[in-house]
Amino acid sequence: MNIHTIANYLNELADNSHTGFSFDCLPIAGEVDVLQVTIVNREELPIFVSVTEDQILCIAYLWGEEEVNQQTRSEMLEAMVEMNIPMPLSSFSKIDNKYVIFGALSVNSTLSDVEHELAVLSDNSLEVIDEMAAYLI
Amino acid sequence: MSIFRKIISALRGGASEVGEAIVDSNSTRIFAQEIRDAENHLTKAKRDLTDIMAKQMQAEREVSRVKRSVSEHEGYATQALSQGNESLALEVAEKIATLEVELNDQLQANQSYSASAERLKHLVKTTERQLADYQRQLSMVKTTESVQKATAAITTNFSSSNSKLLSAKESLERIKAKQQNFDDKMQAAEALEAEGSDKSLRDKLAQAGIGEQQTSANSVLERLKAKQG
Asked: ∠B184-B188-B190 over CA atoms, to 5°?
């Protein structure tokens, strides 16, 4: 499993997707290969996929620290921690000064598992922003 | 310091600058070495365990062989005694004594092999657990590094393509608007289709002279004639 097998699978899905979404994939070159996956009509919230020795990581950037209303920051953090378990498949994290939502899969997952993960992650990220909008500027 | 704490303090300490290693490559090398050592220990312990267990099985076979031999000779001695052959009985008794010494030796060997096997089994388990722990920790280091490198690649890509990052709220609004637009289009298409099918049915009914009829000049004339009459 590498980002190219994932890209080929998603690109060839077209109308046969199990999730009802159309995906666009763009490999990003770097020290670690990253695949930028966008879902048609949700281009503003891309998902970044990288494959390491034992896991596939799918990350979506939610908002930056500068977008957080500092007065209610701790309430927001608490709400996020509380939401972590009920939210299917995805979890929150922070990379540098950006809040992210991510899902990790075993490298032995099937491609249809990866597709499902991406769809759920995208749905979750939209829902989270909607729910947390009150804490954002 | 646990690797978990190391990663946290490195991230907090601002070591998350692009290109800076989260855990120095030396730690990673030491980890890799520790894993290799643990793997070697495990292989050796497993090989030793096989040897010891084989020896233990041999000792057990030997014990039962000597036991059989002792009871066999006890039978001979009893037979010699019942025949009144005291000297033959004594000779057999001496043989039994030697066999009993041998039996004792074998029992002791067997016991010590069992103890060694237990120790080795415990060692194998401990080493396996330790190995799994090292591998988990190494995976944490590697994942952290990989995420950093991936983030660096993503950030470079964003700044090089000049695409402005929208705020979360703006992104959501845009996506919602697109979704609304899509939904509206679907609704419009449905409405249009419904209208189309409705119209064609009305046409068919009109052709068959059923339903609301269009007012024609003839029908107006008919009506006026009827009034006059």
From this structure: 115
